[in-house]
Hints:
By secondary structure, the chain is α+β, with helices and mostly antiparallel strands. The chain is built from seven helices and seven strands, in the order E-H-E-E-E-H-H-E-H-H-H-E-E-H. It has one domain (23-176, 185-211).
Amino acid sequence: MVSGFRTACVFDVEQTEGRPLAEFARTGGDPKEHLDLLKQAVTNRGIGLDYDPSIAPADGLSHGGRITLKPGGQAAEEFSVLAHEFGHELLHRGPDRTEISKTVRETQAEALAFVVCRGIGLETNTARDYIALYDGNAKTLTECLAAVQRASSEILRELLPDERCRTDAELTRNDAPDERTRLGPAPKYQLRRLHRPHPSRRSFCRGIADTF
């Protein structure tokens, strides 16, 4: 027999009125081929990747040279978790790891996951709640932006190669006359590689601080 409890009337949420209840933070959308590209980016750096249901309730773990994910998640959630753990591998496995507080480590990893997710078009609202869970705030996040931008750029260069650089054919002339009256030899065309960061990457790094 269980003591200390009594029966009581309860209401289903469908029977209530008022403003909608807050939803759990989540990542939505379809990462498409970018999930496989992210996995490839992980393994290309010699980092192992496996799945193990026993890590629950955690969705992912970074062991230093190996990442373990909980199987069975939605593709968008799996992408977000893998990006987070990949961030730990890129930013927190050096000799100075012990000098970085857990608050800073988790803030950097989750901010990186936010930037990478948004960079490929996923909708995510997990960063604020997760960072706050580890006592992070806008000041902590601002101090992390340089590291987050550097690491997220490294990842997005592999996920979005077409955004990283564009090959343009440019007409190069030196004192060339108007095209309609030019009598000289045909103009020379030069293929030039233009290195451009993903257009939204920097704004995402700055914009995430605005959520606090």
